[in-house]
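Weekly puzzle thread! Below is a chain. First person to post its structure in C-alpha cell form gets bragging rights.
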Amino acid sequence: MERRKSRRISTLSEANPVKKNLQTLEQVSSTEGVSAQLGLICDAMKQTIETVKIAKQKDQVWSSLQVTLEEHLSTFEDHAKQQPVSATSSTSASLEAYSKKLQAVAYGLMHQDDNPWSGHASFGERIGSFAKRVVGRDKLTKKVAEYSTGLTETFEEYKRSLSSSATEQAPPAGGQPHRSRDDIINAIERWARSADITSNIFCLADKPGTGKSAIAKEMARRWKEQGVLAGYFSFTPENSTADNFCTHIANDIASNIVDLKPKIEAALKDDGQPLKQRWQKAVVEPLQDLGNDTFFVVDALDACSATDIKELLQLIISAGPEISGEFSVRFLITTQPADEIVSVLRNNYSVTVTSFTVGSA
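Winning reply:
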C-alpha cells in the first residue's frame, strides 16, 4: 500500500498543489525528534486547510473539517515552539498516526484514482464540485465526518501521550526541583490561552513544599484581575469535604459574577440535595449562561476527604464538557502526587498533568 501511494505521488506534476503536502507528510515517520515532526505536520496542515477552504466554497460539508484542522493546528504550533519535555516514543508514534490521517484527507480531496488533473492550474477550484460528483452528497458528508473523527482520535492520543508520560517518568536523582516557578506559570498561561476548549483541567502534581499553593494563589490573583476567575478553594484538614467545596465554589461564583447570584442563591437554599444535584444546580447550570472563558483554582486537592475524592473528581472532570460551548470553563488543580487522584486525571484526554521535576510536561 505504501509503495502504491509513493508511486501515486511520483506521477503528480510539480504544479499539483498537494504533491508537496504529501511529500512533507511522508517525511514524518522518518524524522527524529518530536519538535521536527510537529514542524512538518504544521506545514502540511496549513496547506491542507487552504485546500479545504477552496473545497468549502463549492460545498459547505467541508466546514467541520476546517474547524477541526484549525483547532489542532493551534495546539501543534504552540507545542512546536516549545516542545513538551514529556514527549516520548509514544508521542512520536501518535504524531506519525496523525500524519497518516492527514494523508488520507489529501488523497480524499484529490480522489487520485479518478483525478483528471495533472498539475492543472485550477485544481483547487474544482475539488469541491468534483468530489461531490464522484462520491455523491451523502457519501461525501459521511467521508468528511470520518476524516474529522479520525484526526480527532489521533489528536487525543497525542495529548494523552504527553499527560501519561508526564506522570510516569521518574524525577531526577535526589528529587530536586528542576523547573522554575516561572516555567510552571508560563505553562499554565499557555494552557489558559489555548484554543483547544476540550483541555479543561491543568493539574500541578508534586511533593509538599515545592510551591504549588503559591502558584495557585498567583494564578487566582491574575485571573481575578482579568475578571475571569469564577472561584478559588483550598482544601485543608479542617475544610476537606466535597460539600464544603461545592458550597464555597458556588458562593464564589455568586460573588465574582453578580449576574449569576440570584440563580445560585436559589439553588443553595435546598440544603438536603445530594452533592451531585447541588453541584449541577448551583455551579454547572448557572455557568452555562456565561459568555466568556472562566477559571477555577482548586488547591491541595489531596487534602480532600478520602470518602469524597472519587465523586468530586468526576464532578470536576465532567463540568468542563457540560458547561463549555463557544467558551471554556477550566480548572487549575494542585495536589500531591496521590495515585487515586493522578491516575484518574492522567487517563482523561482533557487533562494536562505536570510537575516541577525532570520529565514533566
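Puzzle host: Confirmed. Bonus trivia for everyone else. The beta strands are 201-205, 229-234, 294-299, 329-335, 351-354.
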